[in-house]
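To whoever is on call:

I kicked off a structure prediction for a single chain this morning and the downstream step that reads the tokens threw a length-mismatch warning. I double-checked the sequence; it's 432 residues and nothing unusual in it as far as I can see. Pasting both halves so you can look.
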Amino acid sequence: MPDANPHGLRALLQPDVQRREFWSWAFYDFANSSYTTVVSTAVFNAYFVATVAGNAPWATFAWTLAISFAAAVVMVLGPLAGAAADVRGRKRPFLYASTLACVFGTAGLCFVGTGDVTLAMILVVVSAIGFGLGEGLIAAWLPLLGRPQALGRLSGFGWSLGYGGGLLALGLCIAYVQSAQARDLGANHFVPVCMAITAAFFLLAALPSFVLLKEHAAPQASDGHLLQLAFGRLRQTLIDSSAWPDLRRLLIAIVGYQAGVAVVVALAAVYAQQAMGFDTADTLQLIFAVNVTAALGALSFGWVQDRIGHRRALMLSLWLWLGMVLLAFFATDRAMFWVAANLAGLAMGASQSAGRALVGFLAPRARVAECFGLWSLAVRLATVIGPVSYGLVTWVFSGNHRAAMLFTGVFFVFGLIVVRGVDVERGRRLAE
């Protein structure tokens, strides 16, 4: 039965979708945020640079190379997986496989120590590929679960719950790190344990999505080899994309501004330690606080987006990103850097939620998994461009992280210029 409250969750969902399905979908954000928060943002990236690679001049570049290679693989496999899911009308098997790849890759990082650069890079690539494929697949459910006018709020609910999962996983790690440091145990001891905590958290928290989510999609084809059908479907989508100019323009904008977001996600802990002198405990506390503001940004901007429009909300979030870049560049004390970091959290929650909802709003329903595969391609291309650019700037300028941070602002300026040309209403009409 629908909620008596016309503004309740029931009123935001498609008629054939139950509330528990939506929450099981949102719980996947809760699950996979543990990986981005602990492995990509707070713990393992800084551990790789400082301990595994021994603060070598090429250490930051090696880290960005690993995550960029993984992103390049997802660029190829993501749209293919989406096309295959649309062809068969089944996304769940692909979601299972990608999740397990991320979980087992993360668990393998438990065995990485000083000097194990090659092993670390291989496992980071495996886990990041699994994460990237799963992120694109789970996003493809959004327009199948929610009504078009509610996608901003539903996406915001998912992202905010996701940051809550990242907070919980990071909180568990912080508690263990503090306990280990009290016993005079170093990073070689507590970082592997943090990786085990993250792998177990991701797997357990993803179980509701595995059990409760329904496909909500009909098969598009049944004859022929799946890979051949997927390639054909994807090729046709790329040909037909000229009929959806606003969706295509949005994806180009996402490549731009997500490159800047990728820098912050991949290198926030590195910047805090190398440019601001934070130690591991300081960095973990900072990332914990940033996740709180990111959750608030995702939740609040979901409502703002449905109220003022998708494009304006997204542009507002990009202005926040530019403010963060300038604050971080000019920060000379910890207090100012804390302000910049929490502004980044607010902007991150807002821009990621807004971008995902807008793709769902502009995607034709029969090709929704393919379109989110292209969204995943755009995000992964950004993950290649952003961190590698940052790593190259630090290399060219002899480890100057401030110069690299200032350069990151170019990506947000590009995103603002391109997003401004998206006609949301026209794009929705073409999608229908």
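Update from on-call: the warning came from a stale cache, not from the record. Cleared it. Sanity check on the structure: The two ends are 28 Å apart (CA to CA).
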